[in-house]
Amino acid sequence: MYAVVRTYSGQGASELFDLLGQREEDVKALISGVPGFINYAAVRGGDGGVTVTVCEDKAGTDESSKRAAEWVKENVSASGNPPVITEGNTVLQF
Questions:
Q1: Minimal CA–CA distance to 16: which of 63, 54, 73, 65?
Q2: What pTM did the predictor assign?
Q3: Which of 56, 61, 64 is nearest to 72 (CA)?
Q4: Helix (H), strand (E) counts: the chain
Q5: Collapsing DSSP states into helix, strand and coil, what is residue 87?
Q6: Rounded to an integer, what distance in angstroms lies between the CA atom of residue 4 and that of residue 94?
Q7: CA distance 82 to 94
Q8: d(CA 81, CA 88)
Q9: Residue 5 has what DSSP assignment?
Q10: pLDDT at 47
Q11: What CA–CA distance (Å, rounded) separates 13 from 34?
């Protein structure tokens, strides 16, 4: 399995996590439709937060990052910093 962690901070990050909570069904439909999707979580921390997507392979996490970037561009009014991306093969998941 492969995971991608997107860390959002700076301008627009707080608004993003407000929207993620308010539009859960939209986000769920968008990300869970990624081929090989396994799991998604959004965690607020301070003025921003992180999202974690786990898929069967890198192609899935790449697609999830593409969809996430498009959704943020279309839905968050403030243009903030792009997320810091951490990704790799999972070592342990349960």
A1: 73
A2: 0.90
A3: 64
A4: 3, 4
A5: strand
A6: 16
A7: 29
A8: 22
A9: E
A10: 86
A11: 23
DSSP 12: T
Q: Is the dihedral of CA 63, 64, 65, 66 positive or negative?
A: positive
User: In angstroms, how far apart are the furthest CA atoms of the chain?
Assistant: 37
Question: What percent of the chain has pLDDT above 90?
Answer: 76
Write out pLDDT tens, residues 26-71: 999 999 999 999 999 999 998 899 999 999 999 999 999 999 999 9
- Angle among Cα 45, 50, 56 to the nearest 5 degrees reads 150
29: how many CB neighbours lie within 10 A of its CB?
A: 10
Q: How far apart are CA 45 and CA 61, in angstroms?
A: 22
Q: Within 13 Å, how many C-alpha atoms sit on residue 89's CB side?
A: 1
